[in-house]
Amino acid sequence: MKEILQDLNTEEIRELVRNAGEKPFRADQIRLGLMQGKRISELPVSPSLRALLCERFEDEPVRILKKYVSADGTQKYLFALADGNVVEGVLMAYKYGNTQCVSTQVGCRMGCKFCASTLNGLIRNLTAGEILSQILVVNREQGGTLKDRAVTNVVLMGSGEPLDNYDNVLRFLRNLTAEDGICISARNVSLSTCGLVPAMYRLADEGIPLNLTISLHATNDEDRARVMPVANAYSVADIMKACAYYFSKTGRRYIFEYSLIEGENCDEAHALALAALMKGKPCHVNLIRLNEVKERTLRSVSEKQAYRFLGILEKNGISATLRRQMGADIGGACGQLRASYLSENKENQGGNQDES
Length: 356
Ligand code: SAH
Hints:
- Helices cover 34% and strands 19% of the residues.
- It has 356 residues and is α/β, with parallel strands linked by helices.
- It has two domains: 1-59, DNA polymerase, domain 1, CATH 1.10.150.530; 60-351, Aldolase class I (TIM Barrel), CATH 3.20.20.
């Protein structure tokens, strides 16, 4: 694979242009065009500079391969990367704007038992520009511009563990929030982690006011390890300490994701344990009924059970919501779309560029 031009920040593009012996304003043209979701071959620069760029960089690092629209309006994208790998993303419409969920890795090595992303392990990290380009191409496809964005909020909750690809994710965040780019405020960005504690401390020290979300799914290490192997490496107690540190550094409330899984974590006792763990902390709990993944045996709870669980948290003074299940009819859960695409296309994986 060639290099990814969208990895570069403004200063690096300036340097590239300088080294090519081109006028400085070319850097602004390149940056602007890229942020509008253009391919290199579409950039409004001289043909010689375009040719130079095309030689070294991927013309179109992220291409929309397929789009599915759910009955509830949720749009799910399957993206093709330049090396033929595919990742997925979702665009969800809320009252306050459109939230795009992006992937940070092809596959994942965290091994959560309910998740489709991790079924074939980690294939590779996405570069910063590949993460950003998912947003740039969707913003363009939706008719958004840099001034009037179609994508207003971003969540790092697609395939992959963002903190397992730390440097690229940080570079992505800096480029996403840069004033001369698509300029999505860090306050409108949520990073979700399965709880890689050392990286949580590192992130707290970066001084980026983004929303930190932790996938908890159980309140004690033994229960948690049954569904999340990462619990063998980092304890719930250590996660809570890292969250407190995050709050002390950023002043931002943190959020816990808790997927309700039949027979695992959704009894009254579990709700009371969760309430006790959350008590007095500057946090919020997002409950979600498990999205059932066909390759997995874990099952969801009924809506009634989910509301009962929510009620117990609320009665105990915990700020909590039951998230609407969006796009379940189009494979809304992490990695489901890629998994079904891969199984349908087993014979011609890699470089498959058929439909769009
Ligand atoms: N690796 C990161 C981000 C990606 S997953 C993390 O673990 O947080 C985004 C969220 O979806 C996580 O809370 C994850 O646990 C949850 N998730 C994954 N598969 C799911 C499923 N089938 N049903 C419900 N939630 C799921």
